[in-house]
Design a protein that fits this description.
By secondary structure, this protein is α/β, with parallel strands linked by helices. The chain folds into 3 domains: 202 residues, no CATH class; 107 residues, no CATH class; 42 residues, no CATH class. The protein has 6 helices and 20 strands. Helix 4 crosses helix 5. It is globular.
Length: 371
């Protein structure tokens, strides 16, 4: 069994912030863990047979072949963020490898904690070899004394081999002074499945991310699901992209967005490049207080036989729905919370129960604070 993560210097408040992202330092219902505080790798281990959790540095020393994976789906020249990460002489981050045929019932947790004013940089590589299943919850948070100058630069590269599956759930709990720049991409091979889920319901200064999945193999699948709330002062430039190259490949991009005064840019792009491919893009937004939700859905087909669709809608809470619930005994606040919770309740097909429960717990936490 994995041992508890011993981090005595984390305050009670910061432990609670980590818990809100799904990070359990007691390691209950977790099979492995990676913890990086600022630029210090504190913990990296996995008790599940056939699965390794290593720091980036140790992984590169152990497996020379990993050089074939580094910077292959995310270009180091992509933008200023990737250039900065690629230039680091002492790269940080983690490598998670699910070897052929392995499977983790309990998820691995990967925690990136920012406690000081600086740029935290990570380069992560996640590999599910042929027939393997890999389930990860990534909890990212900032401490109560981080200050105003903190930034997070994260590069993540995913490789889903033949008949393999990766489910990756990222929950953010930063603060109104933090800027966050994830850069991630994945390659999915024959019959592979990639599930990517993003949850952010707490204040953040800026988030900019646009993960891309390239479905190279026949009958490969990618699903991106995002549930976000933008508070006043938050600027969230979010999106996802799927490139359908393998025959029978399919993708689904789903976003639920709420603004309470902040700005949300919700982008989505599906490119059907091969006959027999299918894709659907959906963005639904609610404006609770004056803010901005800007939906940019794109579908692109270049061959006969690809089927692509999109749906986008932005609106407000329907007064008649609130009154309907009030007539059945709820007060106005309870009725409003019930409708919002239903709006955010996205059940993700194929997601392990433990990860779905963590997404639900994040919604619970947001509901307690009045959304």
């Amino acid at each position: 069994m994995p041992q508890p993560v011993n981090v005595t210097e984390i305050s009670k408040t910061d432990r609670e912030r980590l818990a809100q992202t799904g990070i359990d330092l007691e390691m209950k219902n977790r099979c492995g863990s990676y913890l990086q505080m600022d630029q210090d790798v504190v913990h990296a281990e996995c008790a599940e047979e056939g699965i390794e959790v290593l720091s980036y540095k140790k992984a590169m020393e152990k497996y020379d072949g990993l050089k074939e994976y580094a910077w292959k789906v995310v270009s180091p020249e992509k933008d200023e963020v990737t250039k900065y990460v690629a230039a680091q002489k002492d790269p940080k981050g983690y490598v998670i490898i699910a070897h052929k045929g392995s499977n983790n019932i309990f998820p691995i947790q990967a925690c990136l904690f920012l406690g000081r004013e600086q740029i935290q940089h990570v380069h992560n590589i996640i590999i599910a070899e042929e027939g393997a299943e890999l389930h990860i919850i990534s909890g990212c948070a900032s401490g109560e004394h981080v200050g105003t100058g903190g930034m997070h630069y994260g590069v993540s590269e995913f490789y889903v081999k033949k008949n393999a599956k990766i489910s990756f759930t990222m929950i953010h709990n930063w603060s109104e002074n933090i800027e966050v720049y994830p850069r991630s991409a994945s390659i999915v091979e024959e019959n592979g499945v990639f599930l990517s889920n993003y949850v952010c319901m707490q204040p953040v200064k800026k988030v900019q991310m646009y993960p891309t999945a390239t479905l190279k193999g026949e009958n490969s699948v990618a699903r991106f699901s995002s549930v976000v709330i933008a508070t006043p002062g938050s600027y969230m430039d979010l999106g996802s992209r799927a490139i359908l190259e393998g025959a029978g490949a399919s993708a689904e991009l789903i976003t639920r967005a709420i603004t309470k005064g902040g700005t949300i840019m919700s982008r989505g792009h599906i490119n059907g490049k091969t006959a027999g491919t299918r894709g659907h893009l959906e963005c639904k937004g609610l404006i609770l207080k004056d803010g901005i939700i800007y939906a940019v859905p794109e579908i692109e087909g270049s061959v006969v036989g690809t089927e692509l669709s999109h749906e986008a809608a932005v609106g407000k809470l329907a007064r008649e729905e609130i009154e309907y619930l009030m007539a059945r005994g709820l007060d106005e606040d309870e009725a409003t919370a019930t409708i919002i919770r239903g709006f955010l309740d996205v059940k993700i097909s194929g997601l392990p129960e433990a990860l779905q429960q963590q997404i639900d717990a994040s919604i619970d936490e947001a509901e307690k604070s009045g959304f």
